[in-house]
From TrEMBL:
Co-factor requirement: FMN
Protein name (database record): FMN dependent NADH:quinone oxidoreductase
PANTHER family recorded: FMN-DEPENDENT NADH-AZOREDUCTASE 1 (PTHR43741), FMN-DEPENDENT NADH:QUINONE OXIDOREDUCTASE (PTHR43741:SF2)
HAMAP family tied to this protein: Azoreductase_type1
Annotated family: Belongs to the azoreductase type 1 family.
Residues annotated to bind FMN: 10, 16-18, 96-99
EC number of this enzyme: 1.6.5.-, 1.7.1.17
SUPFAM superfamilies: Flavoproteins
Gene from which this protein is expressed: azoR
Lineage: Bacteria, Pseudomonadati, Pseudomonadota, Gammaproteobacteria, Pseudomonadales
Domain Flavodoxin-like fold span(s) in chain numbering: 3-197
Keywords: Flavoprotein, FMN, NAD, Oxidoreductase
Organism: Pseudomonas marincola
One Pfam family from the record: Flavodoxin_2
Bound cofactor: record note: Binds 1 FMN per subunit.
């Protein structure tokens, strides 16, 4: 049995293509792996604060010297990090906002990319500690960006996930969603076909 952690990051709760892709992916995954445990964290519902002085203080200040705000920030960061540590499979749903990932997803990453927990510094440079995990990234894009210089999603997420030791990453793009109905259906169909292969 595997633990699957799903991270939703679309600001739209209705009519979201990335949420539609996530629902389809989870349904296919559960059909193929009925014993697996699915955990969903929705960043539009339970928003994660941006990196701030309270979180930095929670990480760096001795426990007996932390303020109440620092303790609260650290508690949330620990919860988010523990979810990632417990997961065997990570599923990130990432609509493209202004050529990149939503700021909510960036905030989540800022909480879970933690020195000494998900990566460590060595004399040979940083080393990821989350080896052996798989990740799937489901994107929804208004235009067609895969492989172009305007795609700041895939390179960034590959680097961020690789930094913590997750190198087995599959990207599933639904592209051309704002280029007309034909392009939209083609983009969604292509993404669903790719999902059927990997799930």
């Amino acid at each position: 049995m595997a633990n699957v952690l799903v991270i939703e990051s679309s600001a739209r709760k209705q009519g979201s293509i990335s949420r539609q892709l996530t629902a389809d992916f989870v349904a296919q995954w559960q059909a193929a792996n009925p014993a697996d445990q699915i955990t969903v964290r929705d960043l539009a519902v339970d928003q994660v604060p941006h990196l701030d002085s309270n979180l930095l203080g929670g990480w760096m200040t001795p426990a007996d010297q932390q303020s109440a705000a620092e303790q609260a920030a650290l508690k949330l960061s620990n919860t988010l990090t523990d979810e990632v540590l417990a997961a065997d499979v990570l599923v990130l749903a990432a609509p493209m906002y202004n050529f990149a990932i939503p700021s909510t997803l960036k905030s989540w990453l800022d909480h879970v990319l933690r020195a000494g927990v998900t990566f460590k510094y060595t004399e040979n440079g940083p080393q990821g500690l989350l080896t052996g995990k798989r990740a799937f990234v489901l994107t929804a894009r208004g235009g067609v960006y895969a492989g172009s210089a305007l795609d700041h999603q895939e390179p960034y997420l590959r680097q961020a996930l690789g930094f913590i030791g997750i190198h087995d990453v599959s990207f599933i793009h639904a592209e051309g969603l704002n280029l007309g109905e034909e392009h939209q259906q083609k983009g969604i169909s292509a993404a669903k076909a790719k999902m059927a292969e990997v799930a």
